[in-house]
Amino acid sequence: MFMLELAVNNKMSDLKTLFSNFNIVGPISLAVAIPWIMFKMFSAVWIKKNYNELAGKVVVITGASSGLGEALAHEFYKLGAQVVLCARRRQELERVRTDLLHTYCKDTTHPPIIIPLDLSKYNDMQNHVDKILSITGRIDILVNNGGISHRGRVKDTTIDVDKNIMDVNYFGAVALTKAVLPDMLKKKSGHIVFISSIQGLVALPDRSAYSASKHALQAFGDSLRAEVASDNISVSTISPGYIKTQLSMNALTGSGQTYGEMDATTASGFTPDYAAKEIVRAVVVKRKELVLSTLLPKIAIFLRKYFPFLYFVVMERRAKRASLAELAKSKPDEKTN
Fold first, then answer.
1. What are the Ketoreductase domain coordinates in residue numbering (predicted)?
2. Is there a contact between 161 and 113 (Cβ–Cβ < 8 Å)?
3. CATH code, residues 54-293
């Protein structure tokens, strides 16, 4: 009997403690939860409003003939934006334009505009911008997406290849941005987006020219962001990891030839559609930076910043493995019948 009474008393004591804790924790939890819920609700309304405000915006996209640029064109266009498709290949731009019209013909009122341009001819950028302004009257968002990649050792890469990649990835984007900027400054509004790369934050072996061009673009974007903030102009730098596009296929080798191979990492990357949705969301919420990747590249960024010695070891081993793989690939078959 004594043991039963003791057990009951213990249970009652536990219940009293539980309710006592609830009386303390409950109000505290509510005090934290209610502002958080209100913040999330406000954020959802604000984001939806910003998405709706894309309707009618003039969005210029370079590299719009395929891959991520094409996916971005679809994402902006279905939200009602007036997209200006820019790339070298007019035929592919026509294909993208036709696809947009057929897919979203009932939902939009602005037919896509085609502007064939070559980013390596950066002295022509002002003429292209003048043409766009003569058609649309303004440019609200510039997406610097066009670019080319590189596969090759530093010792095997000619200076012409370095220059070519820098011309397209850096100087082309800079020239186009400088041509667009006066109109944005005049109307005190605008958004400039740089599609950089994880390799603009951490350099990889066998990608020296590409990594250098993206590092330069990152720095330019950071400087520009500070300079135009007081003019109500936003600057977003997007650093994607691997995206399932033709980037590696179209990359330049050290001699300037087309690489022509799909990297396994690229083949297993994010789809362009997924990446485009995330990038448009970053534009909508005016994010200054977005690292769009899986965990591994983010770990590399962390190591480079906080444990550089470890990062250097990892990259050296990666370079050695790549060198051995290339040697094995080029070694003639010694087997005999």
1. 57-241
2. no
3. 3.40.50.720
Under a CB-based contact definition with an 8 Å cutoff, are residues 194 and 144 in contact?
yes
pLDDT score, position 233: 98
Residues 6+ apart with CB under 8 A from 292: 238, 239, 240, 241, 270, 275, 278, 279
pLDDT less than 70: residues of the chain: 1-46, 48-49, 106-109, 331-337
pLDDT, position 271:
95
pTM: 0.83
Active site residues: 210
pLDDT of residue 13: 57
Return all residues near 97 (Cβ < 8 A) that are at least 6 apart.
Answer: 85, 111, 112, 114
- Please state the domain extents for the chain: 54-293, 304-331
CA angle, 72 as apex, 77 and 224 as ends, to 5°?
110
What is the SS3 assignment for 43?
helix
Note the pLDDT of residue 231: 98
Angle among Cα 232, 237, 243 to the nearest 5 degrees reads 145
Q: Is 304 exposed, middle or buried (0-12, 13-18, 19+ CB in 10 A)?
A: middle
Tens digit of pLDDT for each residue in 252-276?
889 888 888 888 888 888 999 999 9
Please compute, for residue 126, the number of CA atoms within 13 A of its CA located in the half-sphere on the CB side: 3
Task: Give ∠ CA 40-45-48 in degrees, rounded to 5.
Answer: 120
Element holding 114 (H helix, E strand): strand 113-116
Residue 289 in tokens: 């930076």
Count other Cβ atoms within 10 Å, centred on residue 277. Answer: 15
DSSP letters along 266-330, please? HHTSB-HHHHHHHHHHHHHTT-SEEEES-HHHHHHHHHHHH-HHHHHHHHHHHHHHHHHHHHHHH
Output the average pLDDT for the chain. Answer: 88
